[in-house]
Every structure is written in C-alpha cells, then in structure tokens.
Amino acid sequence: MATPPLPNSRTAPDGSAVIRVLSYNIRSMRDDEDALARVIRACRPDLVFVQEAPRFFRWRKHAARLAAKSELVVLSGGATAAGPLLLSSLRTTVERTEDVLLPLTPGLHRRGFATAVVRIGGARLGLLSCHLSLQSDERYAQAGMVLDRLAAMDVPHAIAAGDINDRPDGRGFRRLAAELQDCWAVRPWGGEYTSTPADPHQRIDAVFATKGVEVLGCGVPIGLTGVRDGDLRAATDHLPVLAALRVPAS
Hints:
alpha+beta, six-stranded mixed β-sheet, single chain
C-alpha cells in the first residue's frame, strides 16, 4: 500500500514556503551510492541534512558527486564539520554558512555542526545538521549546544535534524524536544523507526523545528512513490526521515 503523499514544495502568495526536509545518515557513502541517490531524488527535498558525510581523501569531490546525482548542490559541512553536511535545491538562496567543531572529549569521536541561514520564498530560516555522541553525558551536552547555536543564529525560524543517537525517552532527545517541535511526534507520517533498515526497531534520527513552523507530516518515506525497499536497505545503515514543513514569511 502506497504511503499518502506529502504536500509538494511551493511558495504561497504571502511569501510563506512549504518545504521538504530530509535527514539521512549516509555512512560515508560506503554502501550503494546509486541507491542512496535514488532515495534522495524520490523524496524531492528542498534541503537535506546529512550525517556521516565523507571526511577523508577527496571528501569534497565525493560530496559534490552525491549532490549532482541527487540533483542538489552542497551548502556547507563535510570534513570541516566532522561529518554533518547540508545539501539544497536551487530553490534556496544562501545568506551565510558556518561549520562548527564541538569540544573534543579524549577517546571519543570529534563532533560538529553544519549550519546555514537561507531564504526560500519569503521565509528566512536557520539550518543545523548534527550527529550527536554515543556517550550519554556528552550527547546531553551537545543537545544543549544545538539549542544554543540555533538561538545564536538570530533567525525567525529554524530546523535542526540529524542522527541523535538517542531514543525519544533519552535525556539528549528530550532536551531537544523540550525546546523544539519533534516533527514526527507532532504529525506522524510514513514509518517511525530509522534503525536499522533490515530490522527497524528504534527512532534515533529526527527532524526538529522551532515553534512557529507548521509541521505537515514527518516520518520514514516507506512506500513513498519512487522509494524502493531494496534501495533503502542498500543505501546505508539508517533509514531517512522526510518532513514537509510550512515556514511563515519573514
């Protein structure tokens, strides 16, 4: 049975914008790159919040190739953000970008944020792609850093998305959901669980939005036209999260 469609991207006469946002951990493109690009294209996103983008030899070339295959462009991130990456459609006008490295805890992986401020239609919004720590205390602190960074962007609306490495009842996830809208919880659509593609049993990837953004639907695009189960399993070790959001004009 096909998943009901999400609203299409569009700009209203008042300048508000309906946008499609995709969050996706791509495991450094170590799996089936063509399947990955097919999934992204089928979701028709305006913005893609990537985690585990290539970080080593010729990483910029790999990111650019994925963007081209997905009919998108690179906004920011990659190795300079320790893995998070932002892609966008040509609908997006970029105001500024910044890659942020977080404090390093000895013995743990370096983490960072890929951020941008963009305009789509008459809407101005901040973006933040993140991949939080596997360690509970560090993850909780990093969730606070996400909130601090969004507040520092000085934008009317913002979206943060990524691999939270935490379930909705975890401290880090709850810290984000206390200040932001957990888009799946607001208006569930499609599938819920993002890990793993072979055995989906937990929701550790999410899209969050500030309070003024209207959530039109959010979830794993299982059954969406053009998204094949085989591609979801072959593309990477996470399932993507797709959201449709209405952002008011600024």
